[in-house]
Amino acid sequence: MEGAFIIEPEWKSPEINKINSESELIELTQDKNISSVVDPILYIKKDLFEMRHPSEVNDKSIEDEFYRDIDEQGFAYGNWVYYPWNSTIVRLPESDDYYDLRTFRNRNLITKDEQVILRSKKIAAFGLSVGSNVVDNLTLSGIGDEYLLSDPDRLSPINLNRIRLIGCTGLGLLKTTITGRRIAELDPYLTQQHFSNGYNSETDDILRRERPDAIIEEVDNLEIKSKLRNIAKELGVPLIMVGDAGDKVILDIERHDLGQTSIFNGKLSKREIELLTSGQASKRDQEGIFMKLIGINNLSPRLIQSSMLRGQELAGFPQLGTTAGVAGAVASVALREIFLGRDVPSGTRPAMDIRKTVGSSAPTNMSENIQIFKDLVNYRKK
User: Fold this and answer.
1) Is there a domain that residue 281 lies in?
2) pTM of the predicted model as reported, rounded to 2 decimal places
């Protein structure tokens, strides 16, 4: 891959193998030093029969004839997929049959014709903490056949409260690798490009060449947020950002494909956008912009308190895995509806408060809230 993005050597795509006999399978396992062979052919046959003959599932003669056609192919049926990161081989149907099988239970909440549309999309995802949850849900839903995954960070222990794709065995791996492995284990036929340098001076040229159908923006850097919106507007593609603020999920949709929105949905002034894009925004500028983007009403007292403790008792911005999980589902549904041509206008949606959904009382009382806001006033003065 040319340019600023580098495909990391730790990422290796699954290998799709054709095998005609048991001896060839044995040879492959020895050649690759395979530790596990998974052959779910019984379940594949059963599910394929139910999918193709739903009205004849109780007809044993038709079922036997269907199974016979597959059995006669022997080891040649389907593909044997080698996953190099766990030394495993799995037999799967051909790409189209496999896709139909893994999305079959979506129907007809999502029709077959709609699934064809969703499958054809190319999606660029920047930021793979909350973003990994978005990509995971998109893949589960059968949305996208090509992913551009971008994040310069590696998994550390403090990420394990919200990145569900892997456990402690993934510590030290690039987040692109972790997300890539997860979606490859869901569907090895997906095309992936891994960009480990994140956003830099050449990113826009790469996006112009690749022309994704949508951009998922989940980065922390405000300058990069601004630049990604500029290129989304230039390319005329929708940009989705889903934020997590404590127990609240905040969804921003920018329909640059329809030309119906301004960058950041008009939340920021022209001067503020110029400050961000130029990299000239001071720390105080960034704090004010950050509050505008999230919305002061969406900052809970505990979240405000936590932000004031950064650099003292805390480091980084506090996040909850439960909120990140819901955020991934919400963003996935938003992209699904956009791709299917439904009326999904630009704008920021009212925050979804998970805690209120379950009917919980507030974690802080009135006197605690008053004290926190007094502390905030003093903090801002300093």
Assistant:
1) no
2) 0.90
pLDDT in tens, 238-247: 999 998 888 8
Mean pLDDT of the chain, nearest integer: 90
CB 246, CB 300: distance < 8 Å: yes
What are the beta bridge partners of residue 241? 252
Identity of residue 6: I
Residue 267 lies in a domain: no
Number of domains in the chain: 1
Residues 250/298, Cβ–Cβ less than 8 Å: yes
The 10 Å CB-count burial string (b at 16+, else e) for 84-111 is ebeebbbbbbebebbbbbbbbebeeebe
Q: Is 285 part of any domain?
A: no
Q: What is the DSSP string of 241-262?
A: EEEEETTEEEEEEE-TTTT---
246: left (phi over 0), alpha (psi -120 to 50) or beta: left
Give the residue numbers spanning the domain of 92: 15-106
Whole-number Cα distances in Å, 159 to 168, 312, 317, 332, 359 = 10, 20, 12, 21, 28
Listed residue (328, 297, 361) closest to 134, CA to CA: 328
pLDDT at 1 over 60: no
User: Do residues 190 and 179 lie in contact, with contact meaning Cβ atoms separated by under 8 Å?
Assistant: no
- Phi-psi map region of 78: left, alpha, beta (phi>0 left; psi -120 to 50 alpha): left
Query: Is pLDDT at 262 greater than 80 in this prediction?
Result: yes
36: part of which helix (H) or strand (E)? strand 36-38
Q: Name, in order, each residue with C-beta under 8 angstroms of 291's C-beta and a sequence gap of 6 or more.
A: 299
